[in-house]
Amino acid sequence: MPELPEVEAFGKYLDRTSLDKIIENVEVKNPELLQNVDADALKEKLEGHKFKYTKRYGKYTFTALDNDFWLILHYGMTGRLKYFKNQDEAPSYDRLLITFEDESHIAFDDPRKFGKINLASSIEEFVKEKKLGHDATEIDLKTFKQIFERKKGAIKSVLMDQHIIAGIGNIYSDEILFQACIHPKVPANKLNDHQTEQIFKVMKDVLKTSVGKRIAGEELPDSFIIPHRKKNGKCPNSDIKLKTIKISSRTAYYCPNCQKEIFE
């Protein structure tokens, strides 16, 4: 599933390819992906207008139109953006196809159809309506600590809860806890100040590094656990086989040597 770094990269990709072009046609191929807007209304608000810039909040891309509306994309499990000029470059699973006057296109490609397409006039109102938590790149340490003090759930679950902290999912929560040397089952409110501060620092560092890599189209560092999150994968530090555990119905990967199950 695309998480904050991938979504940030999608926004930059749209900025590079699709700004300041008049939208000639909008084709909604799977209207079930639409939320709070129907296909006709989406076409009306987009056609004849231009994209001006993008913003990201959590796992959402907000694309500003020149009519004060925002096209909002959530990528679900498999969504991505694909810009192309020739039809032989068209993606196989485009759910929303936007054609510009210069005959180029940008498509919302989503094989599993878990993505969502919204239209709104205010980012702030949308975030409020969705009850999203603080964006992971914007939250400060004081607020971060206050949140953890109140949460009894496993630290991995807290990091993944979009109503608490927006942008982190299954993959990057594993990375953050691996680099912070914290077991994913530790209750958030059992962490001491040093551990909480370590998770906060690591979260910021991991996201910054990952955003840079994703925008550049590069692989994540081999020192990350993410490239090793697979069957028989080994810890990049200790070469010990990684273990898995189910937390909030998601599979967590962790190193039993680096992330010991100690709650004190």
Alpha-carbon distance between the termini?
A: 32 Å
Q: In total, how many domains does the architecture comprise?
A: 2
Radius of gyration: 20 Å
Number of helices: 7
CATH architecture of the largest domain: Alpha-Beta Barrel
- What is the H/E order? HEHEEEEEEEHEHHEHHEE
* Count of extended strands: 12
Shape: elongated
- The CATH class of the largest domain is identified as Alpha Beta
**What is the residue-averaged pLDDT?**
97
Largest sheet features: 4 strands, antiparallel
Protein name: Formamidopyrimidine-DNA glycosylase catalytic domain-containing protein
GO molecular function: damaged DNA binding; DNA-(apurinic or apyrimidinic site) endonuclease activity; lyase activity; oxidized purine nucleobase lesion DNA N-glycosylase activity; zinc ion binding
Pfam families: Fapy_DNA_glyco (PF01149), H2TH (PF06831)
Family: Belongs to the FPG family.
Secondary-structure map with pairings?
Blueprint: H1 4-18, E1 23-28, H2 39-46, E2 51-57, E3 60-65, E4 70-74, E5 80-84, E6 94-100, E7 105-109, E8 116-120, H3 123-130, E9 134-135, H4 141-150, H5 155-160, E10 165-166, H6 170-180, H7 193-216, E11 243-247, E12 250-254
Parallel strand pairs: 9-10
Antiparallel strand pairs: 1-6, 2-3, 3-4, 4-8, 5-7, 6-7, 11-12
Helix pairs in contact: 1-7, 4-7, 6-7
